[in-house]
Amino acid sequence: EVQVEESGGGLVQPGGSLRLSCAASGFTFSSHWMHWVRQAPGKGLVWVSRINTDGTTTNYADSVEGRFTISRDNAKNTLYLQMNSLRAEDTAVYYCVRVRQGSAGLDYWGQGTLVTVSS
Amino acid sequence: QSALTQPASVSGSPGQSITISCTGTSSDVGGYNYVSWYQQYPGKAPKLIIYDVYNRPSGVSNRFSGSKSGNTASLTISGLQAEDEADYYCDSYTSSRTWVFGGGTKLTVL
Q1: Is B88's pLDDT higher than 80?
Q2: A35, A38, A103: best mutation site toward chain B, by most B Cβ within 10 Å?
Q3: How far is B13 from chain A (nearest CA, A)?
Q4: For B37, which of A64, A97, B20, B66 is 20 to 30 Å away at the CA?
């Protein structure tokens, strides 16, 4: 069974840092592009970042460029999101998402981890 | 990276068909056949229901269908059922090698 499970969320002060992890299982992790998508409380989905299969290509939303870094460890079947210089507007549930092979569809979503940026 | 435009809400009666639009630009929706649709229930993770404009993942009801014309993609749900009441989001690949989501549409089954 395909599973992706996020961890690492929590309460952090503005300007602080946090690293999210996403443990993948039930599929060949190294064969899939992966994304992070976030959703502020009561709001819509917002794309954050993506990474290719070997970690050599990454893309970011303008709102997080230069502050967030996506990475992966295929040996550990784990995706990461390093978040620095956090702002109140970064408060959201962060989802780790698998890309369906051969397409652009985001086919498996974790349950999300909540990041709250507040003093 | 402006969000794709979706109606905030749509409604329909059981058995009816409804269509949700998703409007972008030639740099996203109109430029690529990489539009997907997601269904999300309150407090739950989104679920992929349509990918690459009109393809359905296995296990998704054939009452869901997708299409695209120019810069606007559409999701049609036929034979509306009470269980279809949820939020629906579109997304698209963009020329900046990023993704963009729509603002979401709340479907109410009357």
Answers
A1: yes
A2: A103
A3: 25
A4: A64
